[in-house]
Amino acid sequence: MEAYRDQYATLFNNGRNVVVLGVSVDPDTTLINWFRELETPIMVAGDSENATISRLYQAYNENSRQNSRHLYVIDPTGKVTYKALPFRVMAGDAYTELEAEIDKLNPPRPPGGGP
User: Fold this and answer.
1) How far is residue 19's CA from residue 28's CA, in Å, rounded to a whole number?
2) What CA–CA distance (Å, rounded) separates 18 from 29?
3) Which of 108, 102, 66, 107 is nearest to 84 (CA)?
4) Residue 103 and residue 10: Cα distance in Å, rounded?
5) Which of 5, 12, 85, 89 could be stapled to 18 by a disulfide with Cβ–Cβ 3.0 to 4.6 Å?
């Protein structure tokens, strides 16, 4: 999440028409404290105790009882336009690909503050 936070303005057009949501099976109190410490504009959702959402997206690892870092980009109509299963957090090109997909769906504003 630190990488997303640190590159938020560039990757996610500073949040313009973009929602970044993490899903975790960690307890909600842990998530709240962690995200406060991160000081991030990114939101997180706590999954149910039995990892319903995580299992639905096949992101839950039964052995470790944790989520894999899957990443989805969903357009305004609800269509998944990009998947990284798992997202390669340490690979620079993974962020370049993510930024390109977001820019395709939501182009950044031109210099000078145009529409």
Assistant:
1) 19
2) 25
3) 102
4) 10
5) 12
User: Tens of pLDDT along 29-42?
Assistant: 888 888 889 888 88
> Domain limits of the chain?
2-105
The residue with tokens 């949040």 is 15
Give domain 2-105's CATH number out of 3.40.50.720, 3.40.1280.10, 3.40.30.10, 3.10.290.10. Answer: 3.40.30.10
Cis peptide before 86 (omega within 30 of 0): yes
User: Greatest CA separation found in the chain?
Assistant: 51
The pTM score is 0.74
Question: Could you read off the pLDDT of 47-91 as tens digits, one per residue?
Answer: 888 999 889 888 888 999 888 888 888 888 888 899 888 888 889
